[in-house]
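User: C-alpha cells for this one?
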Amino acid sequence: QQQMGALYQGYGTHYVDLWLGSPTPQRQTVIVDTGSGVTAFPCEECEGCGDAYHTDNYFKQSQSTTFRPLECHECDCRDMAGSKKCRIGVMYAEGSSWSAYEALDLCYAGGPHDVALSVDGPMTNTENIVIDHINPVDASQFAFELAFGCQVSITGLFITQLADGIMGMKNEKTAFWKQMHLKNAIPRPQFSLCFSRSNEAEKDGTGAGAMTLGGVDPRLHMSPMVFAKNVKASGFYAVHLKAVYLRDGGGLSAQTTQDDMGKMHKLGLSEAQLNRGNVIVDSGTTDTYFSSALAGPFNQVWKELTGTTYSHDPVSLTAEQIGALPTIILVLSGMDGDPVGDEPIGEPEDVPNYAGNTDLSDNPRDVVIAIPAAHYMEYDPDTKKYVPRFYTQESSGSVLGANTMMGHDVFFDVARGRVGFAESNCDYASLILSEGGSISQPPKAPVQTVSTKIEVPEEVPEEQEEAEVTETYEDGGDVNPTPETENQPVDQSSSKPGPDQTENNATPYELFNNDKPKQGNSEGFWEEILDDMKHECSSTSCRSVAALIILVAMVVVIVGTRRAMARRRVVRQYQEAELEISDLALDSDSDDEEGRYVDEPPMPPIT
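Assistant:
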C-alpha cells in the first residue's frame, strides 16, 4: 500500500507534518527536499533555534519512551558536550549551518494537521494490505523507526524559516522514503510530490498539495502520467534535456499538436550544451536555474515575442498580460526499455505530454512539460509588481526547481530509474472531501491537540543552498516560485478527468488564479461603522467605549500590516541572497562530490 498526506506552504518550500515519539507523538514540520539526504529538526537541547519563528516548539525527546541516540558502535563517534555521540553536521554556502547527533524514534508522516494519532509500534505494509491511504486518520498505520538528526545548534536561515526542519528525500540510504521502505512501512521504493500554492503561508498551515509515499495516485491527475529517464542511479534525480522552447501566447498545459508548432520557438542549443553538468529535479529549490549558455538564445527569442528585454527587474502587469507571456516548454528524454505496465494507453501522438508526431523531438515518447508565466513570474504585494524567477546564469548545471514542478504530480520511481510527470491542480483537500474525510479530521480517541496559535516574529523564505554543490537550495526556506492565489476546490466529477483521459489543448485547464490581491474600500467601511454607532449607541459612555474598541482595532491592524511588510522585506532579502549564491557545481560525476550536504562524519547506513 501507499500513503498520501497533505503538503503545506512556507515562504517558498513545501513542508509536511512529521509526528515523532510515544506515547504522545509530537509534531515537527519538515521541508520536503529531493536534494538532501538527511531528516533533521531541533531537539530540546537546542538554544535559540528559531522556536519563535517555527510552526512548533523543539522536539522534547525526554518525553518520548521510544527515543534513543545512536550508540558509538553504530557510527563514527565524536565528542559532543562531553559525551560520545554520533555527530552529523551541515554547512551551507551562504553561511547557514546546523549540528546534530543521530537518534532513532518512532514516527509517521501526515495525518490530521493538529491532532496526534495513537501509534502501536512499527507497522509493516505489503501489497495485499488494504488501507485507505488518502485518509489522514490512517497515517499512523505507516509508522516506522526513523534515524534522524537531533539538532543541538542551528545558524542563519534555519533559525528564521517557517518549518521546523528538513526531510531528506534524495536517493540515499539515509533518505526518509528509503528508511520507510527498508523498514517495510511501504512496499515500494517510490514517492510522488504534487505542489500547489497560495499567496499567503499561514503559521497554522496553508494547504499546498500532496505527498504520496510508496507510489503515486492517479486521482490527482488531469492528464496521463508520462515518464522521463532518471539518468543518475543515486544521489540527485537528474533528467536529460532534449530541447527548450518558448511558446508564443502562453498557456498552462504542455499539450502540443503539430498545428501548434507555429507558436513554438526553439532555443538553438545542442543537447551537449543543455546538459553540461546535471539537470536535476529539486523540490528544495524555489526557482528554476539554467546554464548561462541558454541566456543568449532565451533573451533573443523573448524580445522577438514580447518586444521587451528579459530581466529580473520588477514589472507592472495585469493578470491578462501575465497569461499572454511566453510559456517555457522543456522536452526531456523519455523512458526507454521494456514497458512496465503503467504507461499511458494508446499511440504517443494520442497521449498528452508526449512529443508524439510533432517536431518537438525525434522521439515520439519524449516528455513535454510546461512552465507557464503564472509559475515563473512572482508577484510582490508591496510593490504590486512581478519579478521573473527563471534564471539563465549558472556556470554549470541546471536545476528544475519548485516552480517547474508546480502544476504537476512528479513521481520518483527509484527502482525503475524513472521520473514521471502528470499535469495536476494538486487539490488534495478536494480529493479528501470527495472521499468523505478531512485533513484536520481527528480520530475517534485523540491523543493530543497541538496548538499552533503562537505569536511569531516575521517569517522568512528559507532559501538556502549547499556549500559544495552551490546549488540554489532553499532548504531552510520555502520555495516560493510564484506567489499565486489560494487554489479553490473544484468539482472532481466535472473538471478533473481520469488518468486515461486527455485534455483539450485549445482550452487548457486553469491551475491557478493569478489575479492581483484586491484591496477593499476602507473609507466606506469606517463610514458604515460610524453610521451604525449613531443609531445603536446613543449615550456618551457607550460611544466612548465603542471609540476605544475602534482605536484598539486600528492599532492591531497597523501592527499586523507592519509585520506583514517586514516579513515581505525579509522574503526579498532571501531571494536576493539566493541569486548571489546560486552558482551551481553539478558537473561532477561523483555523488560524494556533488552531494547537497556534508556529514561530519558521514551518516552510517541504516540497517
